[in-house]
Amino acid sequence: MADMGMAPFLPALNRKARSELDRMGTRRTFAAGTTILAEGELAGRVGILREGLVKLTSSQTDGYRTVLALRGVGELLGEMSAIDGRPRSASVDALVRCSVQLVSAEEFVRFVGSHPSASMAVMRTLVARLRESDHHRVQFASDGVPRRLARRLLQLADSHGRVADDCSIDISLPFTQDDLAGTVSASRDAVARALKDWRALGLITTGRRRITLVDPAGLSRLNSL
Predict the structure, then answer these.
(1) Is the pLDDT of residue 139 over 80?
(2) Nearest CA-CA partner of 22 in 95, 115, 88
């Protein structure tokens, strides 16, 4: 899963392209938990996340939904379907209150074609996501659940954590335990067991939709990261 380390689309645009994009489409506000773009639908719109945080999820044959990635401010949403014309391969759901600029797929494609900086930004986005996907496949093949989970928590701590005076890192995201399991392609029970073991070792504490890394270095050492 992503993630928040990739370069957003908006800052990569030059001033002229950014000014034109700002005047396109409409902006809508979505409450936390709302589906912004739905898996399987045809790409009528492309989104640019202006405020908030979203998760990308995909349904599996057993009905389970895997969390594929997180996307932050300035990132594109639904651009792949706009480019290839195929139905969306994932849903985009608001994790918090979000402001999204929605542009028709046709208008977005014309915009990208007329602005080299936008074309390059889209290409960089697609390449980054391809690399991200390859990296995740390698991790899934080589790492067990505890190691994948430890890596995910350390990544979330880096991108969304708040460091306390005692050097612990608090991660407060509107994630359910099912969401967290989905980010590492594991069952909820497997994630719960790993968290329980780490609590017993004093490496973490947990609360409602909150995890604190009491000893981030120890968590990293334990899982050979």
Answers:
(1) no
(2) 115
